[in-house]
Write a structure and sequence with these properties.
By secondary structure, this protein is an alpha+beta fold. The protein folds into four domains: about 45-160, Alpha Horseshoe (Serine Threonine Protein Phosphatase 5, Tetratricopeptide repeat), CATH 1.25.40.10; about 160-340, Immunoglobulin-like (Sandwich), CATH 2.60.40; about 345-445, Immunoglobulin-like, CATH 2.60.40; about 450-660, Rossmann fold, CATH 3.40.50. A hairpin with a 2-residue loop joins β8 (about 245-255) and β9. α3 (about 55-70) runs antiparallel to α4 (about 70-80) and α5 (about 90-105) runs antiparallel to α6. The protein starts with 16 loop residues before the first helix and ends with a helix.
């Protein structure tokens, strides 16, 4: 499979199953984008000669067409020709291996794969999971390649461990520009506040005047190892630091397994004068709260990777195949071993194996860093959602002895008799002098049988509404497998609550749709893909079936979502109307392709079947939209089409049209 490596974090929602499934239909297309985008973070692929630029673009377009047509022979010819311009590009050699495997030429595939490895390809996770390479899996040579890659990566990680002492700055090394002698010097410190990063480099690189709003030129990934293969991990927190419109800007780009790309004021960095007049330093701070429930002294092993997405082609601290992929599950890191000083402030922290609790007792490991010997009382408790103790005595306490340095205790929490739902574990250590240190973490009491029981409860729903519940159940299953085990599964809890409220609404009213307001529904297509549609319903929609159904169409963009959400606040001005914004996939935003049209037809079919008596109004929010074939699909239902510029006046224009249609 030829993975897309975007130079910027993807804006797609982590719950965007439709978009993810659409991308997976064309795994090979990622080759084209990878070749173009590899230079965005690190000098993995060499640049094509000036004279070959147009030829490469033409070949890439031809490669895309031939892959879609299943013409692997022509794909192989095109990749071979592209290697004439980029002979050292490991991804091209890897893609050649994929094509050969798809053609059934095992020997040629292995030759190309060996070339990719020799040129620097070391993405073990892709090698193991790539469906294109399935014919190679049983060969001894393939297994040897995987084993050698793992051994090399483990040895490299073990040879580059950073040893951090609490409150002391550490030199991480340099990010070097592949095309010049410029470099960015990296420093890092860990203390009781969190992680601190300083990057010093040329003033035109450490820029305080950026305007792109991408989340910052400095891309920092912090990790907690979760695998025997301690060179990469699924537990990764990603941050961007830079500036927007001349002001310092920090963004939370992702939590483990979940891209976010959210601006956060607390993460705004500082720009400081560097050691020389033509240098600047960007100083960023990442509090422990952003990595909860991880933190010392319970956790002493972490990891870091840092890259730069601004001017130049700067290397990464360690080459990560997924550094620029917001959807990636695994990230590379350099290990960090942390330790506290004798004079470090006392602190209490806890560690649990899983934030989802079943019927077994949960083991809690509590760690306390003490600056002296003495006596203390350790009390643990389990609080319900109202903050009340579930233990009749108000917690379980006992005397403990303190030794200078690290103290570790193990306690248990049995939640098997409690109803499913969220709870909070707490621990308080009261030492001599009535000095308290406290720790807490959230857990979810959840029995997996809820999924099957809830699926049975969906049987009374119509086929048109059942898919919306089953999609949410799928999100819960996915969250249970992909999440960081120690992190509270907030999206999962929210989705469970959403399912319960939708089923309760159906029991009361006969539909999962609200009397007014917005919700996301799912339209299944004939090929099994799921299409998300945001519905905004005006009050009285159930009683007046003659009011218009407005469908906002936008290929691969976010204009339709913005407009329909703004409409939700103004739908009182369009009594009984309904507005729908399907999430239409597109290879390029604003450009309709076969997949875009298929998704639009799926949405219209669902909407027309669910609301058969309503006149359909089609609104195009991109000037590339051709709605003629959509209009012809339901000639008796579609009563009007219109192009609306997705600007600040779009909502007013749409509301005016709705009122005219009435």
């Amino acid at each position: 499979m030829l993975e897309i490596r975007w130079p910027l974090p993807s804006p797609l929602s982590p719950w965007s199953e439709t978009a993810a499934r659409f991308r997976l239909r064309f795994p090979f297309l990622t080759c084209l984008l990878t070749v173009l985008l590899l230079t965005g973070l690190g000098p993995i692929a060499s640049a094509a000669p000036e004279s070959g630029g147009n030829e490469l673009q033409t070949m890439q377009e031809a490669l895309e067409r031939n892959r879609l047509q299943g013409d692997y022979e022509m794909c192989r010819i095109l990749i071979t020709e592209m290697l004439r311009f980029q002979p050292g590009n490991p991804v091209l050699h890897y893609n050649l291996a994929c094509v050969a495997a798809l053609e059934g030429d095992i020997e040629a595939s292995m030759d190309a794969l060996r070339s990719a490895i020799e040129k620097g390809y070391d993405d073990v996770r892709t090698l193991e999971s790539d469906s294109d390479l399935k014919p190679l899996r049983k060969t001894i040579e393939y297994k040897r390649i995987i084993a050698d890659q793992v051994d090399n990566l483990l040895a490299d990680a073990g040879a580059h461990v950073f040893h951090f002492t609490d409150g002391t700055w550490n030199n991480l090394g340099l990010l070097e520009d592949a095309l010049s002698d410029r470099a960015i010097m990296l420093e890092m410190m860990v203390d009781d506040v969190g992680f601190h990063v300083r990057a010093t480099g040329p003033a035109d690189v450490i820029r305080p005047t950026g305007t792109d709003g991408r989340g910052g030129d400095l891309l920092v990934t912090l990790t907690a190892p979760d695998s025997l293969r301690s060179f990469d991990t699924r537990s990764a927190w990603r941050f961007g630091f830079g500036s927007l419109d001349g002001e310092p800007s920090g963004r939370l780009l992702g939590l483990p397994g979940r891209p976010l790309h959210q601006p956060v004021n607390d993460l705004a960095p500082e720009f400081l004068v560097g050691p020389s007049p033509d240098e600047l330093t960007i100083a960023a701070h990442i509090p422990w709260s952003y990595m909860a429930p991880y933190g010392p002294p319970a956790d002493t092993l972490f990891g870091v990777n840092i890259g730069h997405t601004g001017p130049g082609r700067f290397s990464q601290l360690i080459s990560d195949p997924a550094m620029a992929d917001a959807q990636a599950r695994w990230h590379r890191f350099r290990p960090i071993q942390t330790s506290l000083r004798d004079e470090s402030a006392p602190r209490l922290a806890g560690r649990i194996p899983n934030a989802i609790v079943g019927n077994k007792s949960l083991e809690i490991e509590l760690s306390f860093w003490s600056d002296r010997a003495g006596q203390a009382v350790l009390t643990t408790d389990v609080l319900d959602p109202n903050g009340q103790s579930t233990i009749s005595e108000g917690g379980i306490g006992g005397d403990v002895d303190l030794q200078p340095g690290l103290n570790v205790w193990t306690r248990g929490a049995d939640l098997s008799a409690l109803p499913d739902g969220p709870y909070r574990l707490t621990a308080v250590l009261t030492s001599e002098g009535d000095t308290d240190s406290s720790w807490e973490t959230d857990v979810l009491r959840f029995r997996g049988s809820w999924l099957e029981r809830t699926r049975d409860r969906t049987k009374p729903l119509s086929l048109l509404e059942r898919a919306s519940i089953e999609w949410r159940l799928g999100l819960v299953r996915e969250e249970m497998t992909r999440r960081d085990s120690r992190t509270y599964p907030a999206p999962m809890v929210t989705t469970i609550q959403d399912v319960e409220s939708l089923l309760a609404r159906h029991t009361e009213t006969g539909t999962i749709l609200p009397a007014t307001g917005s919700m996301t529904v799912i339209c299944p297509s004939d090929d099994g893909r799921l299409l998300q549609v945001i519905l905004t319903l005006a009050a009285g929609w159930e009683q007046d079936e003659s009011a218009p159904l407005l469908v906002l169409l936008d290929a691969g963009g976010s204009g339709a979502v913005r407009v329909v959400r703004s409409l939700s606040e103004r739908m009182t001005e369009a009594p009984a109307a309904i507005a729908a914004a399907p999430s239409l996939p597109a290879l390029r935003p604003g450009v309709w392709d076969e997949g875009t049209h298929a998704a639009a037809r799926t949405a219209l079919s669902w909407l027309h079947e669910r609301f058969p008596r309503r006149p359909l109004l089609l609104v195009s929010l991109d000037d590339a939209t051709d709605v003629t074939d959509l209009e012809n699909t339901y000639p008796d239902a579609v009563t009007g089409t219109r192009y609306v510029t997705p600007d600040g006046y779009a909502v007013e224009t749409v509301l005016r049209w709705l009122n005219e249609a009435r």
